[in-house]
Write a structure and sequence with these properties.
409 residues; alpha/beta; Rossmann fold; UDP-N-acetylmuramoyl-L-alanine:D-glutamate ligase; Protein-Tyrosine Phosphatase, Chain A; 3 domains; 6-stranded mixed sheet; 17 strands; 20% strand; globular
């Protein structure tokens, strides 16, 4: 393994340092010897992990300091001078024996499962994961063991990484402004994997039959991929299986937010039809567990979905798929689109999904509420004891969980 002084003498400045990814890169770079500073537009929870790093918060980006290497988040590409984030991540991966997890769905959870098992088995992993992992006290750490990385195909940055082990979970077109077709995406992944010595293909594995602490068929598949990667890393399967069942999940991945009036509220980052369908199915498993109010009642608890679409391009291309996924819930309320990095597109709004859902499942209880506050009030009015409310989306829909709980109290 590389020493902790691998980047000694380097001065690295990070634009967008408050993001889940860039904050982790900054943490590792500093721990491995570099002097690190950065900028972001807003303060974020990820910055609390960067003790001792000088961070400027301002509406507009400053010029990178003279004599420093500047690396720029994809969110600010073209607005700040500097190298793309992929170059910094690729260098970090090159400094350690690394496991990179890629694919459309399940990357955060699977990466977290791998890092969690390595941690609990005393193997001191380093990791860079795109979400908070409560059991690991954050989304990044600079351990001395294997480096576990959540790869990202949205800007093709995963293609620059050269790990010892790669995990490909699935191939599903999710970033329509980057890839023109599923075939192009498949080709991209295959070109990347051609340079990796050891590969785990999740779609070739059977889901585990272990009694996991996280619900859902998709998590049983994530666990199968994690265990296969751990075996390639030299971890005995019996040891990995013993600890993986203790993994309780990542932030915003079916995260329990509370309970009021006998109604449980879960929050999820799901923002693709396949993810919505998987989480709705997993929420039904939750309602069947003995500790859930519906499990001992006379009627089956319902799953009520509150969905905030993410990106105009994704909504335009996948409105039909979103509707069919939401049809798996007992009731659904859709909000206006969270635009993130995209400008509005004429004629594209959350109503496209509502209209498709009305066709896909006539008679279903459906709500349209452009504002989150209104959507929270609607789903709270629908909910009754034994139900599960599921807030879904990659924007700021996680704010709605507290709103729902307040109205139910």
């Amino acid at each position: 393994m590389s020493s902790s002084a691998s980047l000694a003498g380097r001065r690295i400045w990070v634009a967008g340092i408050g993001g889940a990814g860039m904050s982790g890169y900054a943490l590792l770079a500093r721990a491995w010897g570099a002097e690190v500073a950065g900028w972001d537009r807003v303060d974020t929870p990820y910055l609390r992990h960067l003790e001792g790093v000088a961070v400027e918060i301002s509406p507009e980006p400053p010029q990178p300091p003279r004599g420093w290497e500047a690396y720029v988040s994809s969110a600010f590409a073209g607005q700040v001078d500097g190298k793309p984030r992929a170059e910094l991540l690729a260098e970090l991966v090159s400094l350690r024996r690394a496991i990179v997890v890629a694919g459309a769905h399940g990357k955060t959870t699977t990466s977290a499962m791998i890092a969690f098992c390595l941690d609990r088995l005393g193997l001191d992993p380093a990791f860079l994961i795109g979400g908070e992992i409560p059991q690991l006290d954050g989304n990044a750490r600079a351990g001395e063991g294997w480096l576990v990385v959540e790869g990202d195909e949205s800007d093709r940055s995963v293609g620059a990484l050269r790990p010892e082990i790669a995990v490909l979970l699935n191939v599903d077109l999710d970033h329509h402004t980057e890839f023109a077709s599923r075939a192009e995406l498949e080709s991209f992944f295959e070109e990347w994997l051609a340079g990796v010595p050891h590969i785990v293909r999740s779609e070739e594995l059977d889901p585990v039959s272990l009694d996991l602490s996280v619900p859902g068929e998709h998590n049983r598949r994530n666990a199968a991929a994690a265990l296969a990667a751990l075996e390639l890393a030299g971890v005995a399967r019996v040891d990995a299986e013993r600890v993986i069942v203790e993994f309780t999940g990542a932030g915003r991945r079916l995260e329990p937010k509370g309970e009021a009036g006998g109604v449980r509220v879960l929050d999820s980052y799901a923002h693709h039809p396949a993810e919505l369908a998987a989480d709705i199915a997993a929420a039904r498993e939750v309602t069947a567990r003995p500790e859930h109010p519906a499990a001992s009642g006379a009627s089956r608890g319902r799953v009520i979905a509150l969905f905030q679409p993410h990106l105009y391009s994704r909504t335009l291309h996948l409105a039909h798929g979103f509707a069919h996924a939401l049809a798996g819930a007992d009731a659904a309320c859709v909000t206006e689109i969270y635009p993130a990095r995209e400008a509005p597109v004429l004629g594209v709004s959350g109503r496209l999904i509502v209209n498709e859902l009305a066709v896909a499942r006539p008679g279903m209880t459906i709500g349209w509420a452009p504002e989150l506050e209104t959507a929270a009030a609607i789903v709270a009015s629908w909910a009754r004891a034994g139900d599960t409310v599921l807030t879904l989306g990659a924007g700021d829909v996680d704010r709605a969980a507290a709103m729902v709980l307040e109205r139910l109290a």
